[in-house]
Structures are given as C-alpha cells and as structure tokens.
Design brief:
Elements lengths: L1 H28 L4 H13 L2 H30 L14 H24 L5 H8 L3 H28 L5 H28 L2
Helix pairs in contact: 1-3, 1-7, 4-6, 6-7
The structure holds protoporphyrin IX containing FE.
C-alpha cells in the first residue's frame, strides 16, 4: 500500500519534470535567434513565473528522489537473497546508483549556475559558460545520463500501462533523443560554430 503511494508520487513528479524539460528545451532553442531568446527570458524573468517554476521543480526533484530511496529500501528488504539468474545485459547496480548521483549533481550544479546568471545579459552569460570545453563535456555527460534515465523510466511507465510493443518503445527513444539532442545543440553550437 505504502509502496504503491511512493510509486505514484514518483511517477507524478517524473511527469511534472518531463513536462518542464520539454518546455525548457523548446524555450532554449530560441538561443538560435538572440532577439527571440532575449524577449522570451525578459518576459520569463520579469514576474514571479521563474521563481514559481523553480519551487515546483525543486519540490518535484525532492519528491522523486525521496520516493526512489524509499522504494529501493522496501525492495531490498523484501529480497534478502539475490536472484539466481540475471538478465544477460544487466547493468551493475553500483553503476546505476553512481549515474543517478551524477544526474542529480548535474541538475543541482546547473540550477546554481542558472541562479548566478545575470538576467540582464543572459544570452552572453550562457555563451560565456560554454566557451569552456570542461563545461561542454560536463553538460554532454549530464545529457547522456539523462537520456539513459528517461528512456529507461519511460519504458517502465509503458510496461505498467501494458504498452510493450516495439513501436511504443521506438517512439519513446525518438522523443527522448529529440529532447536531449535539442538541449545538446546549444553548447555544441556555442563551442563549435559561434564566432
Ligand atoms: C545545455 C542545456 C541547457 C541550457 C543551455 C540551459 C539553460 C538554462 C538557463 C539560461 C536557465 C536560467 C533561466 C532564467 O534566467 O530564467 C536555466 C534554468 C534552469 N534549468 Fe536549464 N538549461 C539546460 C539544460 C537543463 C537540464 C537538462 C535541466 C534539467 C534536467 C535543466 C533545468 C533547469 C532548471 C530547474 C532551471 C531553473 C528554473 C528556471 O529558471 O526555469 N536545464 N537553464
């Protein structure tokens, strides 16, 4: 019963975050037109919207992580003896844990960086951030782990809904790649193409 509640909370927070990610990626694509980027973020940063979005996102991340820890604990207590046979391509549990910790650190660092941006010169602050090859690599690594995390978790959601066909899974992969590819296009464009 408690486990079901945590699973539902985790999925709900996941849906909220995925919705935000689609919005954030589309908003960021305006970077390819400096005036469109400036008009959007001038509007976004003018009133309380930005802070409301930030509060909702931090709450969603906290709920998602707390529920994930709880579910893991309950599952670990229920299975004291390991499975005799694992999937051929099972990813080691430690790697999964490390990747999730990295993803969370990436998001926290990105939020701190976004708070340090000077909103009156946001376009040049974003451009300056991605002059650094280290930052480009850090963001690409974060986006890679996000791709894995989203495709895996959305596949699980499909499974729960009974949608197991290849077409659904292909659609999930295409959607996730469009999302993270859209994000990645900005640091790549700044580093490799911008004068
Ligand atoms: C290269 C990719 C990305 C770029 C260029 C980017 C850019 C930005 C910028 C410019 C802001 C500050 C907006 C403002 O001043 O109002 C921001 C905020 C934020 N970003 Fe990103 N972002 C990227 C990827 C991501 C990813 C992958 C996530 C989550 C997994 C994320 C989550 C957030 C959050 C939660 C905020 C604070 C709330 C907000 O201001 O909307 N971003 N990002």
């Amino acid at each position: 019963m408690v486990l079901q509640l945590h699973k539902r909370l985790m999925a709900l927070a996941g849906v909220v975050m995925t919705g935000y990610l689609v919005f954030h990626m589309l908003a960021n694509l305006s970077f390819f037109s400096e005036s469109a980027f400036n008009s959007f973020y001038d509007f976004y940063n003018a009133g309380p919207i930005r802070w409301l979005v930030l509060i909702v996102m931090v709450a969603a991340i906290a709920i998602h992580v707390k529920a994930a820890i709880k579910i893991r604990k309950v599952n670990a207590n229920a299975r004291t003896v390991d499975y005799a046979k694992h999937d051929k391509f099972k990813i080691p549990a430690l790697l999964v844990t490390l990747s999730v910790i990295f993803l969370l650190s990436f998001i926290v660092i990105h939020i701190i960086q976004s708070l340090l941006f000077d909103t009156s010169v946001l376009y040049s602050d974003v451009t300056a951030l991605f002059q650094s090859p280290l930052m480009v690599l850090f963001y690409l690594a974060g986006l890679f782990v996000l791709t894995m995390h989203l495709s895996h978790s959305l596949a699980n959601v499909l499974q729960t809904l009974g949608k197991t066909s290849v077409i659904y899974h292909g659609a999930v992969w295409a959607g996730v790649l469009a999302l993270t590819g859209g994000f990645a296009s900005i640091p790549l464009y700044i580093y490799f193409v911008m004068p």
